[in-house]
Design goal:
Distance between the termini: 35 Å
Number of strands: 21
Number of helices: 4
Order of helices and strands: EEHEEEEEEEEEEEHEEEEEEEHEH
Structural class: alpha+beta
Radius of gyration: 20 Å
Helix content: 10-25%
Strand content: 25-35%
Shape: elongated
């Protein structure tokens, strides 16, 4: 019997195992998946001294309540998250981007995200997980990945394969910033839309719908007029692609998106804005701004450099 494990007392709303995702499988219909907010995923692993591509627990809105049994370990939580550690009759207020030592019998209560969607829990060790196509990332729509492709459940045990004995305290001074203007490049079907439709797309605000998940983000607002065809022959999709179905309301493809689709694509969210985009909650208003491909490439390089600089500070 494994002597180091977590018991799930409350599973949370959408709690899954995620890592860096699956590469080069689009041709067989398997999306990238992986952590929605890649920067916060990487920082979580760095804080506890893990390899950057190690699995973590991703949660949305309300996180899990976990009881730990075993040897001392460090944990870290990244994002904008309210959490506490309950030890005997005392309570320790959690702080994001900082390691905390937890002991056998401690309870970790990840209460909620704060005006954001996703948070990440890392441990100084390795979860006992099964890999599928070199990744443990859970895609609940396809039942792929760790935990038989399903969300974590109440009374389930999360076994630790091994733990890291190095319990050095780590901390990073970092504050998540929000984004309202989402930068995009033109999509492959940009000219399917009327001039008025294009103008509305860039001039008007859109509201993020409650009908959003790891697969896609549905928007509500001015209807984007299609003057060619509201359907096309299904073709490949990528993360960040913005499809416009017949009702004129855009849908942004997110990490668990289908790999092909038959709706025209008006644009693609640039990679540098993706992590902040996925953290926007339903009801948030956003606007789109068109930039050139060369600018998108430069912004991505800058964002990656900023992420590496943050990692090096830990």
């Amino acid at each position: 019997m494994n002597k180091n494990y977590f018991k799930i007392l409350r599973a949370g709303i959408n709690t899954t195992f995620q890592d860096g995702g699956r590469k080069n499988l689009y041709h067989i219909g398997i999306p990238f998946s992986g952590a929605m907010d890649n920067r916060n995923y990487l920082l979580a692993n760095k804080l506890v001294g893990n390899k950057l591509e190690s699995p973590v627990i991703e949660f949305a809105y309300q996180g899990p309540l976990l009881e730990y049994l075993g040897e001392k370990i460090n944990i870290a939580i990244t994002g904008d998250v309210n959490f506490i550690i309950k030890r005997n009759n005392s309570k320790i207020d959690g702080v994001c981007y900082q390691t905390f030592e937890i002991e056998s019998g401690d309870k970790l209560d990840i209460i909620s995200t704060n005006k954001s969607v996703y948070g990440y829990l890392s441990i100084s060790g390795e979860f006992d997980l099964k890999y599928q196509w070199s990744s443990c990332s859970t895609n609940t729509k396809a039942n792929i990945g760790a935990n038989e492709g399903k969300k974590l459940n109440v009374d389930q045990k999360i076994n630790l394969l091994k733990i890291n004995k190095n319990l050095n305290s780590k901390k990073l001074n970092y504050v998540n910033t929000r984004i309202e203007n989402i930068r995009i490049i033109k999509g492959t079907n940009f000219d399917y839309f009327s001039k008025k439709g294009k103008d509305l797309f860039f001039e008007k605000e859109f509201t993020i719908s409650k009908l959003s998940d790891r697969m896609g983000m549905r928007l509500q607002g001015s209807k984007i007029e299609n003057i060619v065809n509201t359907n096309i022959k299904s073709e490949g999709l990528i993360k960040g692609a913005i499809q416009v179905p017949a009702d004129g309301n855009p849908i942004i493809m997110l990490s668990d998106h289908g790999t092909i689709g038959g709706y025209p694509k008006i644009g693609v969210v640039i990679s540098a804005d993706y992590d902040k985009l996925v953290q926007l909650t339903p009801g948030t208003k956003i606007k789109f701004e068109e930039i050139e491909l060369s600018s998108a490439e430069s912004l991505y390089k800058l964002y990656e450099l900023e992420t590496q600089n943050l990692i090096s500070q830990i």
